[in-house]
Amino acid sequence: MIQAINVSLSFGGRTLYKEVNLKFTKGNCYGIIGANGAGKSTFLKILTSELEPNTGEIIITPGERMSVLEQNQNKYDAETVLDTVLLGHKRLMEIQKEKDALYAKEDFSEADGLRAGELETEFAELGGWEADSEAKSLLQSLGVEEAVFYDLMSSLDAKVKVKVLLAQALFGNPDILILDEPTNNLDFKTIRWLENFLLDFANIVIIVSHNRHFLNKVCTHICDVDFGEINMYLGNYDFWYETSQLLLRQSKEQNKKAEQRAKELKDFIARFSANASKSKQATSRKKELEKLTLDDFRPSSRKYPYVDFKYEQEIGKEILKVEGLTKKSMFKNLSFTVEKDQKIVFLSSNSLVLTTLFNILAGKEEPDAGTVRFGKTIKCSYLPQDNREFFDGCHLSIVDWLRQYSKDKTESYVRGWLGRMLFSGEESLKEVNVLSGGEKVRCMLAKLMLEAGNFLILDEPTNHLDLESITSLNKGMTNFKGAMLFATGDQEIIETVANRVIDIVDENTIIDKQMTYEEYMNLKFGG
């Protein structure tokens, strides 16, 4: 067990949280969520004693071992890959080091023998004799090749380093596992393996992640950093989000009777109570969910942008036909036809391949060979991954910038669209060249909605967005009635939006399947 008791933290006069009281228990996985800057990762640092709170304390059951996913990728550059994993269990390595020093002594005494015996007993109890094989097994499961086990960490690619550090955190069956953004830079196969590992993990897991699919899959509880507090709720991310939205809607309908509001919540919980997370505990968790009442929740204070792609021109029979499209070193003889209601996710290990393809389809680049033909009724709107051409050197205010793309130029109309994207008041008068990455993407989404295209091309649309904006974008993409081509690293969007997959494996290998992403990945890697 790990417990936060009356924990408070303030920085420069700003209170992140006050008198937090939380208990994390064995067999559960806790997702820490909150707006950017709310203090999610900071709270993990308090739990791991890396940071001292202003008041309160963290209590851990005596004898329990905590393991933390290392964020500094270069910390173990002087160590081999295998030793880096083994260093995840510090006590085990301390024993090994002391044993080696004792056995190396020329004047090995009786006292040394007694000490060595004690160390050997503790070493065996901690699984020391199986440590090497366990570490190697973890590495292999995470996709790290055996050939690099004895290479220095400094020689590895960043994506491989992440896997080694993850193996280090998981090594030795820790009692408490702390993971900050564990899925960053991981491929689908590795993320799926990690999900299954955590579902079977019997101890405590505490996670900060922007990966909603991952949170939905593994979390049994959500800890929401909001209102200067951290409140714990039963269920996964979707359950927390939908419950919060339900209560927010209800709070706007003040005349609704309490009995009716309670019934809505009860009906809602009944739909969500069969949460697949931690399937071994699903039955007891369902019973807990069924006991929840209105008083167990409060609406979130966080604001979500409104993303809704509408179009005026109805789509005809011909939408898009691509034939023999070729770009040197990227793809060769790429051909596909887009049909009505298709939302196609494009996959590639090289994101430049997809950006180049989308630029060609949008008329921004020329192919080496092949043709692109849109139907006469199609109006294509493109959200590029690189939006610098729209903002660099531009000194227009946000209002005047968006006005360029609106048929109705009136101030109130344009500000209404900006309000949907959470730009209001004086904020709308900021120059667009000083906006953050996330603010620029929200501006681009407003532009896209004003264009009202019936065919969308979206290249990594979630880049720079926070969890709230990604959730809203996901809903907008799901509800869109036109045709769509997109590429994204957000697994939840892919699984809930795509109904066709085109995988550009290499220049000569292109796989096109009319199926969901999950079905395709099961086909590719085995279900």
Descriptive keywords:
19 helices; 527 residues; 18 strands; 2 domains; single chain; Rossmann fold; globular; 38% helix; six-stranded mixed β-sheet; alpha/beta
Helix count from the secondary structure assignment? 19
User: What's the CATH topology name of the largest domain?
Assistant: Rossmann fold
Give the CATH H-level superfamily of the largest domain.
Answer: P-loop containing nucleotide triphosphate hydrolases
* Biggest beta sheet attributes: 6 strands, mixed
Strand content: 15-25%
- Unreliable stretches covering 5 or more consecutive residues: 275-281
Name the CATH architecture of the largest domain: 3-Layer(aba) Sandwich
Give the N-to-C terminal Cα separation: 34 Å
Instruction: Look at the helices and sheets and give the structural class.
Output: alpha/beta
DSSP strand tally: 18
**Helical proportion?**
25-40%
Q: Strand arrangement, largest sheet?
A: 5-6-7-3-8-9
Radius of gyration: 26 Å
CATH class wording of the largest domain: Alpha Beta
Number of separate domains? 2
Average pLDDT rating? 90
The coarse silhouette is globular
